[in-house]
Amino acid sequence: MNRVMQWSRWSSSGWPVAGSSSGTAGSDSSLLSCPMGIYLDQNSTLYIADRGNGRIQKWPSGSSSGITVAGANGQISSPTDVSVDTYGTVYVLSSGGLYRFNPGSTWGTVVNFILH
Fold first, then answer.
1. pLDDT band at residue 106, thresholds of 50, 70 and 90?
2. Which distant-in-sequence residues (6+ apart) come within 8 Å of 37 by Cβ?
């Protein structure tokens, strides 16, 4: 499904916290396409590796849409995981390697290149 769900412990049902409640794929700021890795920071902001759209979406708690913080310019291909350090630096693992995006930057730096 093209959404991220939250489940309470021992619960048999959950609720969508990011993406379409129906799981519809898409590329606008309120939709996801094949979300993979996620990271939850200390403020309950969710970072999502939106693989199908080649971007990282920052989804503030309670928000109905995300903000693209990496990949807006097509630099990353098929991101599968994301992490954020205490300084707000975003690290992205994709099919092309490991990238670092400094806070507010639209371009990332290749940290490690993956050969196929």
1. confident
2. 48, 49, 79, 80, 81, 82, 93
Helix (H) or strand (E) holding 18: strand 14-19
Residue 14: CATH number of its domain: 2.40.10.500
Q: What range does the domain containing 67 cover?
A: 3-113
How many structural domains comprise the chain?
1
Summarised one tens digit per residue, pLDDT across range 28-42 is 999 999 999 999 999
